[in-house]
Structures are given as C-alpha cells and as structure tokens.
Specification:
By secondary structure, the chain is an alpha+beta fold. The chain has a single domain, classed as Nuclear Transport Factor 2, Chain: A. Helix content is about 30%, strand content about 50%. The protein has a six-stranded mixed sheet, with helices on one face. The chain is globular, with a radius of gyration of 14 Å.
Length: about 130
Amino acid sequence: MSQDEQEIRQLVETWLMATQAGDVEAVLALMSDDVMFMSAGQPPMTGREAFARGLNKVLAENVIESTSEIAEIVVSGDLAYCRTKLTVTITSKHGQLPILRNGDTLSILRKQADGKWRLTRDANMLAAAA
C-alpha cells in the first residue's frame, strides 16, 4: 500500500472519529476550501462554512456514528478518488428512535500545497436502511 493510500485511509478514519466526537473543526480541516458535497435530490452544498452550519445543526440534537468500508482508492498525481460503503447512525439526544442510512460514496481528494490530502468533492448515495 502506498504512502498516499495510507494517508487517505487515515483521513477517512479521522473524519469518522471527529464526527462522532462532535469535533466540527477537525472535520473541516480535512476538506479543501472549495469542497462540494452532492447527494440525490438536493442541490450541491459548496464550501466549508455551509458544511459546518449543517453539521453543527445536526450535532446540536444528535450523535452521529459511522462505519466506512473502503472498496477502492486510486491515486493519480495530486488527485485521488476513494469509493466506500458507508453506514451512518444518527441517534437523538432526546430519546427519539435512531436513523440508519447506508450506501455508497465516491470522494475526490486533492493533495494540497502542504502535502496533505483534503476532500474536494463528495458524492453521497446514502438511503434509509431497510
């Protein structure tokens, strides 16, 4: 496994742990300034600030736990993509039933000037679990 692939795997793991811990700043540090998130039926969400607003809103009332199974990582120069199977459980802090979503994601990462990989585009195809 290449050093770049190891770094991307660590980015994914750090993202999951920081989200569960409610550490929005740590999650934001893993994405580029021009990050874009795409999901079915929604307009693209662009930029760190938009993501932070959405994540803070969800975390105010919930805890998010996720598992990710990396199916594929391909690195080509300063660009890479990562395809995963993602499962997300959103548990209310107020006793409501948890929400379970799962599905595939495709993330594009770019190596920044500082040598670190950052998420730049993410296509999320999660749906309610059956």
